Amino acid sequence: GGGYDAYAIQQKWQARWAESDPFRAGGTGDSRPRKYVLGMFPYPSGDLHMGHAENYAYVDVVARFWRHRGYNVLNPIGWDSFGLPAENAAIQRGADPREWTYANIEQHKRSFREYGSSYDWSRILHTSDPEYYRWNQWLFQLLYERGLAYRKESPVNWCPNDQTVLANEQVVDGHCERCGAEVVKKKLTQWYFKITDYADRLLDDLNQLEGFWPQKVIRMQRNWIGRSVGADIDFEIEGHPEKVTVFSTRPDTLHGATFMVVAPDSDLAAELASGSSAEVRMRFQDYLTNVGRSSEIERQSTDRPKTGVFLERWAINPINGERLPIWAADYVLADYGHGAVMAVPAHDQRDLDFARAFDLPIKVVVDTTAPITGAIPVIELDENGEPSESALEESLADIDPARTGIALTGDGRMINSGSLDGLSKRHAIARITEELAAAGTGRASKSYRLRDWLISRQRFWGTPIPMIHTQDGRIVPVPADQLPLTLPDAEGLDLTPKGTSPLGGATEWMTTTDPETGEPALRDADTMDTFVDSSWYFLRFLTPNDADEAFSTAEAAKWAPVDSYIGGVEHAILHLLYARFITKVLFDAGLVDFTEPFSSLVNQGMVLLGGSKMSKSKGNLVEFSASMREPGADAVRTAIAFAGPVEDDINWEDVSTTGAQKFLARAWRVAHDVQSDPDVVWAEGDESLRRVTHRLLADAPSLVEQTKFNVVVARLMELVNATRKAIDSGPGKADPAVREAAEVTAMVLDLFAPHTAEEMWETLGYEPFVGLVPWRAPDPTLLVEDTVTAVVQIDGKVRATLEVSARIDAKDLEALARADARVQRALAGREITRTVVRPPKVVSFSTN
Ligand code: ANZ
């Protein structure tokens, strides 16, 4: 008796799972093949909302699916628990970041239990535990030993009013987002990881992820790394001992260089200016102050008026000895290429804008009107068989960049370029690169957009950097036997951001001894970017409680890489790039035997409310914990899975949890109505219902693997409806096919609504847990649509035959017969006076 009580069922099965821990991954004795399924771990900031509900529902579908398919599944959960949210809460509310963080984690754990997620709860990790971050410190030192961690002075955004370092997003039009003060650049010495050493591998290995990662993510990673191929060219500078090297993607245009531009904020610009007149030095200083106020994005914008200062210095073009004036201008960036460019205004738009603004010469060296066949320019010849100069002059006059203001960036035929004349771009690049290399003034080269990874944070709530600064200026690792280097108590520390680290104020903590001399020494006051924590956490899940090593190489060989990684597209670049980088470092260190951490990646769409992404700041959160009682975990999960394709955004207003509740109640009722015993002979059951059941068994696996979860839910609904019909108006409750359908429903429903599925399974007379039941093999004979040949007669003569389903009804069969072209031809417009239909074999028409 009684109705479907979702909440009671939910609580009952959660207690049973907590008791038996059925989803723990199998250990050494388990011979099943393995699958590692992982959802991107959450920040413990505030409560979970429907965006999380979506992510972790999908993760659970995949984990449960592979268990049914006979795999030993690892599906762990942890918390990315260092970072700004905790620190900001501490600053705003005076809460201790540690207490705030762990209270949130407890709340999250309750929510995930209430959600029925099938985690291996024995493998929990929190990155803010010393037992975890001890291994961040190990990792840091590993990179340091391998020459991949170094210190460098670099500019940060600084608000002089708030005495605060600002993230790029906190600088709006050059002003502090909070107080409106003008932001300046301030130099700080910070730690970097040398990810640029891995740029080529990070780029090239993306090829092996093609088809397994979303195309969009692969493209974003490629753009972020941004490899450009070209040449480095060395220029002598008059009155300067060192040559200046520029990077160019168009060395073919070297003859067209008419000036040189250096980044004003580079050391080179300062050096060149210092060798110039007092007036130039002053103008340069003024300019530099202004440049400090604009962002990199503003500096690269093409529709911004060009500004710059002539340094009254000269470079010598290595190919023809021409003197080129040197300018400092902010459209050249200090940290790309070599921070200096050879300016070719005829063929580069930014150089052209600059040349036109400051009246500098413009020299065309590529005739872009010359058509190119393959890589070879087609040269128009005059009557003497010479390249036609007049035609050239005429066509070039039309497109003269000095007049049109449009740079000639296309391919064409080299002109005014000595030995390069007549060549196409591709050949000219090859030729000039060879010539420069032979002369020792240039070489083939590549540049990358990718920058080294700045990992220092002047914040409290992160992993302390395990390095010691000695009195005599050495920087040495904290000895391994002193790790973990744990954070001090937050109490008494000033956590407000001020450009120096809060840890610097923990005097006692800061003082240590030089491991070599025993003299007093200082700790490093910075903490690590939390992206370090998340760059390797998937390995820690393999041996989360191991006190002796970060992870076990042997376990990694068994489980990793992650087979299925599921998370938000907001992590498409940095998190994934850093995890890929660290994996390659660990591979090089011989600690893992693979070079990519995530074999397949799924990005789910966002959950929107009122058209925008759910977020606390927008006040449009639908909280996770609040929905666990009503509509309940199963309804939320099922409604989300049914809402649409995984990668599409979902409007929460369109998600019908009521519809999901009704469907689940129907499914549950079917299990209750079954009247046959578990040992019935299915083969004796109703065949048409059995066909629906077995088609679901056959189709669902590939649908799940293609993440078409919504289609699987739709097919389950179809099966439940067919079963209901069989009970109410078909062979009835006792038919074996009804039991079979209910059992299969429970097994497949487990992916989406595990509590309801377990309840059905128990009702059907089985021991728990349906979550561990092997996928039932479909009966192939029930999958073939059996067909028969029907004949169509007109006035007693067979005019056509039709292949039709053996179960076709009279109406459908008649319609098919009438629609058949041969039948229509035979009727030739005559009127049908009598029709006899005997499905599935005969249709007979009479005419007059
Ligand atoms: C001469 C030239 C001629 C260039 C021409 C382009 C076209 P990507 O593709 O983005 O790598 N460049 C080099 N270093 C720079 C810096 N630090 N800041 C701003 N611009 C810089 O662009 C490479 C091109 O950008 C280089 O090739 C250089 O200009 C410029 F017809 O050299 B080129």
TrEMBL record:
Q: Principal localization?
A: cytoplasm
Motif extent ('HIGH' region): 42-52
Q: What is its EC number?
A: 6.1.1.4
Residue ranges of coiled coil? none
Q: Where is the Methionyl/Leucyl tRNA synthetase domain?
A: 39-182
Q: Which residues form the Leucyl-tRNA synthetase editing domain?
A: 222-436
Cellular localisation: Cytoplasm
**Region feature Disordered, mapped onto this chain:** 488-522
What are the binding positions for ATP in this chain? K616
What's the protein here called? Leucine--tRNA ligase
Upper lineage: Bacteria, Bacillati, Actinomycetota, Actinomycetes, Micrococcales
